[in-house]
Amino acid sequence: MTGLLFVLRIVLPIAIGWVYFSYGSKFWLGFQRTNFTSGRILLTLFWPVCFVLNPSYRRNFQKALRGR
After folding, report:
1. 15-19: Cβ within 8 A, 24+ apart
2. What is the secondary structure of 20-59 as a DSSP string?
3. What is the pLDDT of residue 3?
4. What pLDDT, on the 0 to 100 scale, is given for residue 60?
5. What is the pTM for the complete model shown?
6. DSSP H or E stretch at residue 60
7. Burial environment of residue 24 by CB neighbours within 10 A (0 to 12, 13 to 18, 19 or more)
């Protein structure tokens, strides 16, 4: 049981944070490849919500990450 608690309390939040910040930083660096002209900070901070809810944002997010 202690192994599961370790994973849930330590490993999982670190993994989620790593994914959040790594994809956020990639989006930040590739922002100029998107169709967006403003809102760079907000679009980077709220990328998980926008990615799930907005197909247009999803396409632009992929452009920023892949460089297309």
Report:
1. none
2. HHHHHHHHHHTGGGSS--S-HHHHHHTHHHHHHH-HHHHH
3. 80
4. 96
5. 0.85
6. helix 55-66
7. middle
pLDDT of residue 33: 95
Average confidence (pLDDT) per 10 residues, the chain, 68 residues: 79 94 97 95 97 97 87
Residue with tokens 């490849």: 33
Cα–Cα distance list, 9 to 6, 18, 21 (Å)? 5, 15, 19
Cα Rg of the chain, angstroms? 15
CA distances from residue 44 to 51, 60, 67 in whole angstroms, order as listed: 10, 12, 16
Overall size of the chain counted in residues: 68
Q: What is the pLDDT of residue 67?
A: 72
Q: At 68, is the secondary structure helix, strand, or coil?
A: coil
> What is the rounded end-to-end Cα distance, in angstroms, of the chain?
46
